[in-house]
Structures are given as structure tokens and as C-alpha cells.
Design brief:
Blueprint: H1 3-43, H2 50-82, H3 89-108, H4 111-142, H5 147-181
Pfam family, one: PHA_synth_III_E
Protein name: Poly(3-hydroxyalkanoate) polymerase subunit PhaE
Keywords: Coiled coil, PHB biosynthesis
């Protein structure tokens, strides 16, 4: 092997190592952020039973195993690449994408995740209600029609249409009766 080929191989290996380390660091950061947010959600869900919490922790444990298997798989494929096997970068990406999907399935399939999601939806709906009430109050203060005002007008219009239709039917009967008598 020539000096130039050896230098190119060394540069390639160093670049591959740096890329692998950077990818691993990003993956570990993502896992840490996921775990932190997961525990925050679990901690903020007051109605969660200890059984649900345990199931949630088991789900996270299974997700962690998936991540670790992906790390092993990526390390093996990196070793294969260093030994000269043609390994595409897409394969490395696919390892992490597939493991991320599998890990999230492990967590999202738990009753703890369902409880936490339910609590989050409940919190969002309460916040939306408060925002709607504040908007209605602001519109009322500024003299604009509120949603409640528009709903009231719509109900009155429907009632007027119903009454008009009833009056038209009565008039038609009267006119029909007058035609018969003539």
C-alpha cells in the first residue's frame, strides 16, 4: 500500500470515527431528552396509578433495550466498514430510524403513556376554554359580537324561518279553501 493510499485510508477512518461519535452523541442526547420529558410527563400526571407508572417504566426499559441493540448493530456495521465491507451511510440512518420507531412503540403502547396523553389533552382543552373565554370577554368589551351573540342570532333566525314556514302553510290552506268555495 502506498503512503498516499495509507494516508487516505487514515483520513477516511478518522472521518468515519468522528461521524460515528457525533451520531452516537446526538443519539444519546435525544435519548436523554426523551427520558427527561417522559419522566416530566409521568410526574405531572396525578391520576396515574402505581401499576401504570410501573408499566410506563417497563415500556421505557424495553425502549432502552431497543436503543442499545441499535447501538450494537451500528458498531458491528462500522466494524464491517473498517474491515473493508461496503456499508452505506443509509444503512446507519435506517438502523437509528427503525430503532427509534420501535422504541417509541414500546413507550406509546403503555397505559402510562395513554394516561399522560389523556392528561395532556385535558390540560390543552382547559387552556383552550380559558383562551376562548378571554377572547369572548375581549370582544364583548370592545363592542364586537361574540360567538355566543352569533349563536343567539342564528337560533333566532332558525326560529323565524320555522314560524314563516308555518304561516306560509296556513296561508296555502286558506287559499286552497277559498279556491274550492268559489
Amino acid at each position: 500500500m502506498s503512503k498516499q493510499s495509507g494516508d487516505e485510508w487514515t483520513m477516511y477512518a478518522e472521518e468515519m470515527n468522528e461521524t460515528m461519535i457525533a451520531a452516537l452523541e446526538r443519539n444519546l442526547e435525544a435519548q436523554a431528552q426523551f427520558v427527561e420529558s417522559w419522566f416530566d410527563v409521568l410526574d405531572e400526571t396525578p391520576e396515574m396509578s402505581s401499576e401504570q407508572l410501573n408499566e410506563g417504566l417497563d415500556g421505557y426499559s424495553r425502549a432502552y433495550e431497543v436503543w442499545m441493540e441499535a447501538a450494537e448493530q451500528q458498531f458491528e456495521r462500522a466494524s464491517d466498514a473498517f474491515e473493508g465491507e461496503d456499508v452505506s451511510l443509509n444503512e446507519f440512518r435506517d438502523i437509528w430510524l427503525n430503532s427509534a420507531n420501535e422504541a417509541f412503540k414500546e413507550v406509546m403502547g403503555t397505559s402510562a403513556f395513554a394516561a399522560a396523553t389523556g392528561q395532556t389533552v385535558e390540560d390543552v382543552l382547559e387552556m383552550q376554554q380559558e383562551v376562548d373565554e378571554a377572547a369572548q370577554s375581549t370582544l364583548r368589551t370592545l363592542g364586537f359580537a361574540t360567538e355566543d351573540d352569533i349563536d343567539e342570532v342564528a337560533k333566532r333566525l332558525v326560529e323565524l324561518e320555522r314560524r314563516q314556514h308555518a304561516v306560509e302553510k296556513k296561508l296555502d290552506r286558506i287559499l286552497d279553501a277559498m279556491d274550492v268555495e268559489e
